Protein: Xylosidase
Organism: Hymenobacter sedentarius
Amino acid sequence: MLRILSFFSLFTLLSFATQAQPNTPAPTRRTYCNPLNLDYGYTPIPGFATAGRHRATADPVITRYKGDYYLFSTNQWGYWWSHDLNHWKFIPRHFLRPEHKVYDDLCAPAVFVLGDTLLVYGSTHEKNFPIWMSSNPKSDDWKEAVHNFQVGAWDPDFFLDTDGKLYLYWGSSNEFPLYGQQISRKTFQPIGEPKAMFGLNDKQFGWQRFGEYLDNTFLDPFMEGAWMTKHNGRYYLQYGAPGTEFSGYADGVQVADQPLGPFTPQPHNPFAYKPGGFVRGAGHGNTFQDAWANWWHVSTTVINVKNNFERRLGLWPAGFDADGTLYTNTTFGDYPHYLPNGPADHLQPQFTGWMLLNYQRPVRVSSTLGSYLPNYAVDESIKTYWSAATANPGEYIQTDLGSVSTVRAIQINYADQDATFLGKSKGVYHQYKLYSSLDGKTWKVLVDKSRNKTDVPHDYIELPAPIKTRFLKLENVHMPTGKFAISGLRVFGLGSGAKPTPVKGFVVLRTEKDKRSAWLRWAPNDKAYAYNIYTGLAPDKLYSCIMVHGANDYYFKGMDKDRPYYFTIEAINENGVSTRTPVTLAK
């Protein structure tokens, strides 16, 4: 895709309201942190790199095949596989034939399994793209299942129903709806005519308005990224909106009793939503099950600095509640989370409880390039970054946690400054050393990757054991391209002080003129660096979470104008999370 009730019992309420303060699971569980640390290729499109060459991908699909997970996404000149959703191995592969004179090598792909075969099809408006198939994708062993597929489909999704019938869904437009059509499983020829599924209704649903501020200023909203999931006999057709460039990029869903509808919007929408925090956006992805039948949602996250389509990938716990509501749990979604190791209830937190320790803390650096200032590396915005003047060994950035703290993990997010690559390159790797110190004078090597030969643009290091420290220093050894630049040096663990007190004065002012929008305000908490706002359609279904930094108000413009909404808020600091405020009803 290149374009874009009454209150329930207190016990029930608190069962979901405590998700930010989980009991720590067994320490043997491994963790991960968004954005996913994949060896993303650089945009292959010169016209998209005029403001600077940069890594870019989006529109992911994760499919489980023969006990492993396969991840395909836009324009990567290949794909990844993993056995544990943690360690990913890239397989180089071009899916274009010589006569295909386009840059979009497997853009927004459809990936599906038929019998013992994995099949892949990329976006096109033409009728000359193949459907590829493989029974041995780890070895790049592919052949054509169909030479020219006769349905030109952008942002396609193939869905195999439990009765053996195959369907195709597609669409990426701010004018046309999503479409669906049955496809012959034997010949891959279309059966009957395409049928319109549904379109957007931004006059009803505020989150569907186009723009960073959901104001429809210059374009109508886009609908794209179809994905079908069947659960308990019902069909959940998912889609991305309103635009891949924006923090509010999200996935919505409509539900039907038949694969081609008629569809009805699920009351809880969008079901995948993350407009705040370090990593923003949770649109155009897919919903899949792991080895223990736990549901997950992988999706596109937004950078949008050097180009509208500068993006990364995020992985979120998901599921269906007892009423059949599809949800995605993005609470603390860019903090360390536990990877699966057995059956889990994703309404309960997979968040480790490890807090960010160095938000806007003092920084020292070896040098600075222009206006790419040091504290941009600790401001919790992936859009801003510090850059050293060079990529020389010895360039460094040092962060002060403010006091001796317990450190559990570090995430190093590299930025693209003066990169030279277009597309996927071989032999790309980062090398660095990470030091710790109690006093900022005597340093110990904490992590030594001076001999690393892998590409780690969002390297996440879970320490084998927690350490007590106050200072951390990241020293460059080798950059694959461009300057030594960091958009986020993020340190996780627990501080040595007290959690913040509960938020006071929380009010929700829902406008009379436009019920899609509300102004949320609260008294500043001088012990908090951020706040989590929870909202939903019932007191025990506060499934959406918005993290707000450095402010004591928020304009929430994502509501269904005809439904009441419930809200609560909690304060966050390096020592933990406050209790939440009583739930507020906004009619």
Residues 355-494 form a domain with the Jelly Rolls fold (CATH 2.60.120.260). DSSP finds one helix and 38 strands in the chain. The radius of gyration is 23 Å. Helices lie at 10-17.
